[in-house]
Design goal:
By secondary structure, this protein is of the alpha/beta class. The protein has one domain: Rossmann fold. The chain has helices at about 1-25, 45-55, 70-75, 95-105, 145-150, 150-155, 175-185, 205-219; strands spanning about 30-35, 60-65, 80-85, 115, 135-140, 160-165, 190-195. A seven-stranded parallel beta sheet has the order 3-2-4-1-5-6-7, with helices on both faces. Strand 2 (about 60-65), helix 3 (about 70-75) and strand 3 form a beta-alpha-beta unit. Helix 1 packs parallel to helix 4 and helix 2 (about 45-55) crosses helix 8. The relative contact order is 0.18. The structure holds guanosine-5'-triphosphate and magnesium ion (MG).
């Protein structure tokens, strides 16, 4: 009983802070994307490739969520983009309060597009609203075909889905057909991009979609 009440209070408090974040992001016409996946699906690699092609066109910022290290933030910093690291000290997801604090630390203002890389995990991050506009879920071809049906919440919540590591498709038993069938049951509306963070295939389509979403937010 006590545990249930605590969870309710935590989620309630998170909801208030998420609303606060959403208001701030809206006032600034800033599109915010919460990037989620299993550990190692390629979130940071996709961010690096995206920064390479969008950095001259948009003002980008990144909030990096990680358990203990700042390795991903260092990778992003090398690309010349504003980045703030959140270390959750063991917690398996970001929450709206962490994002609120990190956003206050983000140098400069007038960003067009802010990515929040969540902690690698297909379960907990899906349950916490950060005040973002969109949840982007990355899955990679090496993770197996059962992930969409085994972790339905995160795929249902997704506003966009990126299948990464398509360069490795020939070496895995991943079936694109089954992937699309499962998504048709769970989330038929989210756009799906097939990309390779290694070769860059599909990244330009993903980036063009991001540019359209930024324009739509401004409008
Ligand atoms: N072959 C191949 N490898 C990739 C691709 N994208 C990423 N990788 C590799 O996969 C590994 C994990 O990539 P990251 O970008 O660090 O993954 P992540 O999702 O940010 O990982 P966490 O932050 O730890 O959750 C690295 O060794 C990347 O080089 C891809 O499209 N193809
Ligand atoms: Mg990463």
């Amino acid at each position: 009983m006590v545990k249930v009440r605590l969870e309710h209070n935590i989620l309630g408090a998170n909801e208030l802070l998420a609303r606060k974040n959403r208001n701030i992001f809206s006032t600034q016409d800033l599109l915010v994307i919460n990037l989620m996946s299993s550990p190692g699906s390629g979130k940071t690699t996709i961010l690096e490739k995206t920064i390479d092609s969008l950095n001259g066109k948009l003002k980008l910022g990144v909030i990096e969520g990680d358990l203990y290290t700042d390795q991903d933030a260092q990778r992003i910093e090398k690309k010349g983009v504003r980045v703030v690291q959140i270390n959750t000290e063991g917690a398996c997801h970001l929450d709206a309060g962490m994002v609120d604090k990190a956003f206050q630390e983000l140098p400069g203002d007038n960003l067009d597009l802010l990515f929040i890389e969540n902690v690698g995990n297909l379960v907990c991050p899906a349950e916490f609203d950060l005040g973002e506009d969109l949840k982007a879920v990355v899955i990679s071809t090496t993770e197996g075909n059962d992930k969409v049906t085994k972790y339905p919440l995160i795929f249902r919540e997704a506003g966009v889905i990126v299948l990464n590591k398509i360069d490795l498709l020939p070496y895995t038993d991943f079936s694109l057909e089954r992937f699309r069938e499962d998504l048709a049951q769970i989330n038929p509306l989210a756009p799906v991009f097939l990309v390779s963070g290694r070769t860059g295939e599909g990244i330009s389509e993903w980036n063009e979609w991001l540019l359209r979403e930024v324009s739509a937010k401004r409008a």
